[in-house]
Design goal:
Two copies of one chain form a homodimer. Chain A is an alpha/beta fold and 324 residues long. The first copy, chain A, is built from eleven helices and nine strands. Chain A has one domain: Metal-dependent hydrolases (TIM Barrel, Alpha-Beta Barrel).
Chain lengths: 324, 324
């Protein structure tokens, strides 16, 4: 079982075929950044057309059982997630509606302050807001996983503490390895693991030591160090692969509709676009190479299987849907 | 010229006739609390039907000149405002659209954290957000007045500092007189006045010393003390009159869609509804009584005219529309 904890490709038959070639059995796909409710529904409609057009390659999944069934049928299971809370607008009632429509992950904030929590690019981080506490409780009730990948430190720690169910950081790396605003402190990673949460390691160059020139060995040594910190059962992959996207998409991800100016986020005026992927992970077909790399730094076969998919599957089995 | 800096009545011919009886020449009316863009447009449609039905009583105004023309024609000028930034959703481009549709005031936050600033009921106040700074600049550009009536202290001070144009606190009283979360510190009131801003005194019982039993004399003495602090040219009335509203409306104001529970705000489980208005200000017909009260505590005729309307008119003349 191989699972990717986050991708946002320019979806196409090519990408879906590469998922099958790479043996990627399930992917958490971003269906919304700054899209509000109605626009998110339109994005789901687009996915429905993909499911109708490529039934031999992909299928929608909202439970661990559906992921197992997809694998048995040689299809890649597609799990919906949102990178900002924009799809729920200012309406707590939309949490359950979005879950019914298939959403299984929602970030509480994305770089900026949201109605719920603070993003990692704000100067100040006051933690969960009044509405944030209410919404986390509602997400816990219906089984919509809290994702704090783009959130700030205190907000993340408060989400871990306030949530009655394990949360995820679907795509980020340890800040101790590569000190980017988007990467996470040991304090956060330890608290995440202690509460049964999951970290997905990102392969987005801005999150990597050495950027696009990061090596497989350095990446896998970082995973080994993180396994020491968190335990090998709390880590997985969340590649953040943005395959075949035009640079206009990274601008939308960063700027949305919150400013009339350009905000380069992790990029810069000199390098405003998507960065080049590292050599060892250019698309879904490179997934098996990660297994080789993990073996190379000493992981057992059981740990490799856990990190490449089974840890995510176990997390999904308890995280998706109402609590028992 | 008599102007009320904020009302949210259950609008009807009765209320419009009482405005004329009380000699209220212009009113900033709330057209949205938690309504998002499309719902706000529906509320403007409702106002358009009022303007069509009662052309002899009310008229829409977006400039000081239109207010003077309305007074000359014996009509009450209606100025649109929003008590939360929900109508602009997450889209800075809606600032200009809302201004074009007639909006002249927008609060950056309402009790809770917004995308822009913090509300006065949050435990923490990190000040203006990244988006908040961008939106204030855009509001400055088009001439949509920043209103911080329901915002928290630091956010309010940062809005005053960051805004290149004078801002308003349309409806609140000094916290030194009545220490409610919604009332404002001397620090805020001084900074507001020093930058040419305006405070509208509220007649909503939860903002009054003695609540519903507050006397005209106590209210007017508070105004006299505030004139000492801010200068008599920076103060006006913002009655916060919520005439003829059912209690379901105060629940909407407090709870919106951010929680599934009841939040009593300034009320309580024992007194969840709208409080009883003070004897001396039950509706728009009591406006002339305020003039008597102000004379009674020693204000000059010029000051009385300023406080009851001319200060607001002067503020509108420079605050509405693009900067010169």
């Amino acid at each position: 079982m191989q699972i990717d904890g986050l991708q946002y490709a320019n979806w196409s038959e090519t990408v879906f075929r590469q998922m099958r070639e790479g043996g990627v059995d399930a992917v958490h796909v971003t269906i919304a950044y700054h899209e509000m409710f109605r626009e998110t529904v339109s994005n789901i409609e687009t996915w429905n057309r993909h499911f109708e057009a490529y039934p031999d390659l992909i299928t929608r999944a909202g439970t661990a059982e559906e992921i197992r069934a997809a694998k048995a049928a040689n299809r890649t299971a597609i799990i919906f997630g949102a990178q900002t809370p924009a799809p729920m607008e200012d309406d707590i009632g939309l949490v359950e509606i979005l879950h019914t429509l298939g959403l299984r992950f929602m970030q509480l904030s994305y770089n900026n302050q949201s109605l719920l929590a603070t993003g990692c690019y704000e100067a100040e981080d006051p933690g969960l807001t009044r509405m944030g506490r209410e919404v986390v409780a509602e997400m816990n009730r219906v089984g919509l996983v809290v994702d704090m990948s783009h959130s700030a430190e205190r907000s993340t720690l408060e989400a871990i503490e306030h949530s009655t169910r394990a949360i995820a950081i679907t795509h980020a790396n340890p800040a101790g390895w590569h000190p980017a605003l988007r990467n996470k402190s040991d304090t956060v990673l330890r608290a995440l693991a202690e509460t049964g949460g999951m970290l997905g390691f990102s392969l987005y160059p801005h999150h990597l030591r050495g950027g696009s020139d990061c090596t497989l060995e350095d990446f896998c040594r970082m995973i080994a160090d993180t396994a020491e910190l968190m335990g090998a059962e709390h880590i997985g992959i969340g590649s953040d692969l943005c395959q075949d996207q035009p640079d206009s998409v990274v601008e939308w991800m960063r700027v949305g509709r919150w400013t009339k100016r350009i905000d380069y986020g992790e990029g810069s005026a000199a390098a405003p676009g998507f960065p080049r992927q590292p050599e060892f992970f250019r698309d879904n077909r490179d997934f098996p190479g990660l297994a080789e790399g993990l073996r190379g730094v000493g992981f057992s076969e059981a740990d490799v299987r856990g990190i490449l998919g089974e840890n995510w599957l176990r997390f999904f089995a308890t995280g998706f849907g109402p609590a028992p």
